[in-house]
Specification:
heterodimer; A: 96 residues; mainly alpha; Helix Hairpins; elongated; B: 319 residues; 11 helices; 70% helix; globular
């Protein structure tokens, strides 16, 4: 049987790479912001997979990566909001 | 048999995540891309639940799928074109990029498998389990966030605050929405009070079960997003002067507690025994309000043009 941490860890690798590739490829700012969010989700998935390793033997999986990823999710959404606001400002000044 | 079933479910979930992630970034239609991204976020929440990280599942469903999706949809509304321009890359460039992507994936996958191969290695999980009795809470994630690694969370609140200050500095609010139809209006009247009660519950329960300030703040912000969609331009936020204080409250209370403890001789953010639980609840309550106001303002996109949310006339339209 494939352990869950390997399945989801490799899924994380896949999401990280395809997100990064799309970030580099796309011209539209919004598409890039979306792609970098997918890329970040891949990184979180790898990290939490490592935390899950051997969780069957423990009462709880390692909570330290969980806390860090929780922080990461909130920081990612703040950064997304800032990037979108910058994009909006950029378009407004280009329109003038 | 049971293990085989789990593996099959894991593979199915992983395939759906990869498929949705790929479709979200590959589609030419941005609107479809955002919709797929929201679905991706919800499935990711399922993956967190599967990896026994319920705190992350709650945060992902509320923030990663919910608020990030709402932010992207709101940005899409301002976007004149929803079609991505056709990629103007040369064949050779595209192939180089694909080759490098595959190489990178192989290297990262190898590194990850090596890390998993190493087995237990250096883990802090044991240290957390050993000291959780002194942390004032029994949910290990909350103990890490608010006690063992409180510095990280303090600085994270500063990061959120500066991101929102950036959003506020960049211009006024986005266009508001019209009055809702009877279905959405009725739904909002039901959901908003329910969301506020849920936020209070998540804040309280975070001490001993999955939940906490981030999930509670995001749930409150979701109520603000709903109100805004229902035609309330200020999204239920108080006047600008009050909102500013609420925005800073999390960081101020956190710093205030830390500095007072340092002044009393305990060391910065070293909670005295017996008081830890209470202090964590005070900090989390302030942080919940700050996170909610920050995320709501980020969704609104700035101070509203109309009403008293606008602090002064200099904030008005673009030139």
């Amino acid at each position: 049987m494939l352990p869950a941490e390997i399945i989801f860890g490799l899924t994380g690798v896949g999401l990280f790479t395809l997100g990064l590739r799309a970030t580099l490829l796309h011209g539209s700012l919004l598409a890039r912001i979306l792609a970098i969010n997918v890329c970040g989700a891949g990184v979180f998935l790898m990290f939490v997979s490592i935390a899950y390793q051997g969780a069957a033997a423990m009462p709880v999986p390692d909570p330290v990566p969980h806390a860090l990823v929780l922080t990461g999710i909130v920081v990612a959404v703040s950064a997304t909001a800032l990037a979108l606001a910058l994009g909006r400002r950029l378009r407004e000044s280009a329109d003038e | 048999m049971n293990a085989l079933l789990w593996t099959l479910l894991d593979l199915l979930l992983a395939a759906m995540l990869l498929g949705l992630g790929w479709a979200a970034v590959a589609t030419r239609d941005l609107k479809r891309g955002v919709a797929l991204f929201i679905a991706f976020g919800l499935l990711l929440a399922l993956a967190w639940a599967r990896l026994r990280a319920p705190d992350l599942a709650l945060a992902e469903a509320a923030i990663g799928a919910g608020l990030a999706g709402a932010l992207l949809l709101a940005a899409l509304r301002d976007e004149p074109r929803h079609e991505k321009p056709a990629a103007a890359h040369s064949r050779a460039g595209l192939w180089t990029l694909n080759l490098l992507s595959v190489l990178l994936a192989v290297v990262v996958a190898w590194a990850l498998l090596c890390a998993l191969e190493m087995g237990e290695g250096l883990r802090l999980a044991g240290a957390v389990t050993d000291h959780i009795g002194q942390s004032g809470v029994s949910n290990p994630v909350t103990a890490v966030l608010l006690n063992f690694r409180a510095y990280d969370t303090l600085l994270e609140l500063a990061v959120i605050l500066s991101a929102v200050l950036g959003v506020l500095a960049l211009g006024p609010a986005r266009r508001g929405y019209g009055l809702p139809g009877p279905v959405l209006g009725g739904l909002i009247r039901w959901l908003v009070p329910l969301l506020i009660v849920t936020a209070g519950y998540l804040l309280w329960v975070g001490a001993h079960a999955p939940g906490g300030a981030f999930q509670a703040g995001a749930t409150l912000a979701a109520a603000a997003v709903l109100l805004r969609l229902g035609g309330v331009d200020r999204a239920g936020l108080p006047a600008a002067a009050v909102s500013r204080w609420l925005l800073a409250a999390g960081l101020l209370v956190f710093l205030g507690v830390g500095l007072s403890l340092a002044g009393l001789g305990y060391g910065f953010l070293q909670y005295p025994a017996g008081l830890a639980g209470g202090l964590i609840l005070v900090i989390e309550s302030a942080a919940t309000l700050s996170i909610a106001v920050a995320l709501a303002l980020a969704y609104v996109g700035g101070w509203s043009r109309s009403g008293s949310t606008q602090p002064d006339s200099t904030q008005g339209g673009s030139h």
